Amino acid sequence: MLKKASVDEAIADLRLRAGDACRRVEQAFLPRASVGLVIGAESICAAHVVADADGRRVEEIRTEALPVRLFGGAPTATMQQALAGALEKIGAGFKDAYLPVHVALPDPVIQLVVFELEDLPKTKKSRAELVRWRLAKEFHAEGRPLDCAHQDLGAEDGKRLLLGQAGDGAWLAALKQALRDAGITPWTINAGVCHRFNRFHDRFASEANGGALVTLDPEWWTLTVWDREIRPRLARGRWRDGAAGNDGYEAIAADTERTILSYVRGGVERAIGRVFIAGEAPAIAGLSAALARRMRDGPVALSAGADFADAPAAAESGYAPLALAAAVS
Fold first, then answer.
1. Is residue 57 part of a domain?
2. Distance, CA of 79 to chain centre
3. pLDDT of 49-82, one tens digit each?
4. What DSSP assignment string belongs to 168-215?
5. Which one, out of 21, 53, 182, 260, has a CA that is 20 to 30 A from the CA of 62?
6. Has residue 19 been placed in a domain?
7. 157: alpha, beta or left? (left if phi > 0; alpha if psi -120 to 50)
């Protein structure tokens, strides 16, 4: 008769081998390479990432300037054609390789709001209609086409939480057509904040309480707050004003402090355990110092390329950090 210890060891070994087999099957179906593509207002950036036995590595990072500025007013044929031309150039190295391409859009372009409701509409259709109506009113988009999505986040303090996300329908259609014209078929198109939240989700989950992430990209900055169950509670993207003193770091820090305090005071069990920052390295130091002057504990800097093998210096500048986050999110 086997001793109990021997049985336990055999079961543990079986589980280990079964887990290894599952991981091997999973790895067999996961793409070995992917691309993160950022479409900014004045430039685009692509990061080609490859996974092998030594881990992830950056194959290439490319940036292309746009001859026109996007996202100002309604899209035009000139804007769409200019974007398609830049996408065709930047996609020359990967569009024929059938790689997964994950597109990140500026956070100010995609609105994300968590509604606190007394009751949740019963059907998916009624929830979608409510989200569309509330977001149109919130962002003064009545009469304009909106592409909307929603998700039930559960409850807090007796209120149901409904996540709503919306983007300008005309701009999204123009972006999709420009991608098609350039021969690029995206796997996903989402706000940059969503790619970053997915990229660092495991790090956020290791904190006991909720947290906040401040991201700095060349043309915009974003504050994201989540609760202790790692549910996003707010995400606000703002275009950056380079003319502001110190590139706006003090203003961003002040706005971050006000918003976090307002969120925490809005619920009985709300808390923010840690503030993280991410984005282009040259700006992180300035923002970190501005936030540290307002916080008991300084912010924690996150790098999208931290676990990459021999990541180049270019991975920490411009839109490359966001492109890397999108590629592996």
1. no
2. 24
3. 998 877 889 999 999 999 999 998 899 999 999 9
4. EHHHHHHHHHHHHHTT---SEEEEHHHHHHHHTHHHHHTSSSEEEEEE
5. 53
6. no
7. left
User: Pairing state of beta strands 232-239 and 272-279?
Assistant: unpaired
With b meaning 16 or more CB within 10 Å and e meaning fewer, what string describes 179-196?
Answer: beebebebeebbbbbbbb
Inside any domain, residue 213: yes
Strands 110-117 and 159-168: antiparallel
Residue 251 backbone zone (phi > 0: left; psi -120 to 50: alpha; other: beta): alpha
> Rounded to a whole number, what is the largest CA-CA distance in the chain?
80
| Chain Cα centroid distance, residue 119 | 29
Residue 142: partners with Cβ closer than 8 Å, 6 or more residues away? 136
Query: Which residues, 6+ apart, have CB-to-CB distance to 78 below 8 Å?
Result: 68
Structural domain total, the chain:
1
Output the pLDDT for position 311. 82
Q: Tell me, yes or no, whether 273 lies in a domain.
A: yes
The HSE-up count of residue 262 (CA atoms within 13 Å, CB side) is: 8
- Domain with 236 in it: what CATH number? 3.30.420.40
Which structural domain, as residue segments, surrounds residue 167?
Answer: 104-328
pTM of the model: 0.86
